[in-house]
Amino acid sequence: MTEVAKNGTWGNDRPIGVAVLGMGNVGTEVVRILRDHADDLRSRVGAPVVLRGVAVRSLDKDRGLPADLLTTDAAALVAREDVDLVVEVIGGIDPARGLILAALNAGKSVVSANKALLADYTGELAAAAERNRADLYFEAAVAGAIPVVRPLIQSLSGDRVNRVVGIVNGTTNFILSAMDETGADYSATLAEATRLGYAEADPTADVEGYDAAAKAAILASLAFHTRVTAADVYREGISKITAEDLETASAVNCTVKLLAICERVAGEPSPEEGGKERVSVRVYPALIPRKHPLAAVSGAFNAVVVEAENAGRLMFYGQGAGGAPTASAVLGDLVMAARNKFYGGRAPGESVYAELPIAPIGDTPTRYHVNLQVEDRPGVLAKVAGEFAKHGVSISTVRQEGHGEGARLVVVTHHAVESALADTVAALAEMASVTSVTSVLRLEGTEE
Ligand code: NDP
Ligand code: HSE
């Protein structure tokens, strides 16, 4: 091998020792790539990258690895002197958090795919990395193989990001795409997603939007240089979406997607906030026009659209989940961290200087698609329209479908704040001439 020129103090033959914590879907692929591509990795890093050990919960499974590489004592593996870099792909908060902190406090760099942990503890982990001059990388935590963390942290660090909108959960996108394509209902499609291995045995984190909310928190923190945690994200899942909702969407040339939306919104001129711009971070199912670029993202794929003041609109698309795609992002980080060891560089630290306040969902402007079952007689439309006007919600279009007992009104609004729309819907539900408010769906991705 040719000698690599460098500035740091790492000897060219001194290996960079790697510990992998977890050997499930992602860890298995990380270990495979580390072993299969050892020569390429050595050339790309400048020094050999050597797998020192893999921590798992159970030693009973056949992992296709020499027994002496496997351990159930993750803490001891992290503490080994010949481990320089730790890959955490266990998931969850504990013991992952303690293991990562132990690694960082010992000056070892960490690569993690753990969105649940990073959404809530990036501050603590980044501070430990900073104190100990170690690196913390987490490209795989958002949208699997798709490079979106690094573009936000590095490529766009000279620009001003105004909005990030994405489909960041593969399981729910698979379910909504299948409902759209086949007309099947939610439960049947979830069962199919489970059978195909997209949805886990307990699909709550995916279908109720927790997974997407964690990713939204990470994206918003990076985009707006503000610490946003999962608790700051307004969240609704897809479990209440019906086949009728998809039909309604189709009738207006839209489809339904679970969107993670992070955007700057104008600040309140209140003395506390001093008119400071705010950040709105939310995850919910919404109608989007079929011609919108995110409408074409089907199956388990993910996509993220970033709008920046100077770069304009950028779109990132690809596989947001799965062992090998996620491991690709982990390995990218691992090479960066290993190069930093070899050449003496550092990963960018956390940037939260802007400290923008979080806008409550009630203050967030969105368009709505409201479906009402109504009595079909003169004056009903005027009364319904009057209720929208009373609450300051401007109507864009109204369509009547059916007549007599089956009469329906479909109202599409201009942008209105959530609280005004909620008050309107509550008032409509009380009206004698409104039999039921059949559905209220947000409408995103329109120019208006
Ligand atoms: P899995 O559940 O498939 O694997 C988890 C692994 O961690 C298993 O090997 C398990 O051991 C091991 N483990 C659990 N507890 C311990 C412990 N106390 N000590 C040592 N090892 C332990 O998870 P995934 O591979 O799917 O996900 C890993 C991480 O990657 C998560 O943070 C996830 O959110 C993230 N991620 C996953 C994606 C995916 O598509 N799967 C996509 C993007 C991110 P054992 O095998 O013995 O049970
Ligand atoms: N459960 C996640 C999904 C895995 O369905 O997208 C990737 O984070």
From TrEMBL:
Task: Report the record's Gene Ontology biological process terms.
Answer: methionine biosynthetic process; threonine biosynthetic process
Reaction catalysed? L-homoserine + NADP(+) = L-aspartate 4-semialdehyde + NADPH + H(+); L-homoserine + NAD(+) = L-aspartate 4-semialdehyde + NADH + H(+)
Asked if Oxidoreductase is a keyword of the record, the answer is yes
Q: Does the keyword NADP apply?
A: yes
How would you classify this enzyme at the top EC level? oxidoreductase
Q: Which residues bind L-homoserine?
A: 200
**Which residues bind NADPH per the record?**
115
Q: Which InterPro entries match?
A: ACT-like_dom_sf, ACT_dom, Asp/hSer_DH_NAD-bd, HDH, HDH_cat, HDH_CS, NAD(P)-bd_dom_sf
| Residues forming the catalytic site | 215
The enzyme's E.C. designation: 1.1.1.3
Q: Which cofactor does it need?
A: a metal cation
Q: Provide the GO MF annotations for this entry.
A: homoserine dehydrogenase activity; NADP binding
In which pathway does this enzyme or protein participate? Amino-acid biosynthesis; L-methionine biosynthesis via de novo pathway; L-homoserine from L-aspartate: step 3/3; Amino-acid biosynthesis; L-threonine biosynthesis; L-threonine from L-aspartate: step 3/5
The residues the record assigns to binding NADP(+) are 21-28
Question: The ACT domain covers which part of the protein?
Answer: 369-442
User: Which keywords belong to this entry?
Assistant: Amino-acid biosynthesis, Methionine biosynthesis, NADP, Oxidoreductase, Sodium, Threonine biosynthesis
Family, per entry: Belongs to the homoserine dehydrogenase family.
What this protein is reported to do is described as: Catalyzes the conversion of L-aspartate-beta-semialdehyde (L-Asa) to L-homoserine (L-Hse), the third step in the biosynthesis of threonine and methionine from aspartate.
The molecule here is called: Homoserine dehydrogenase
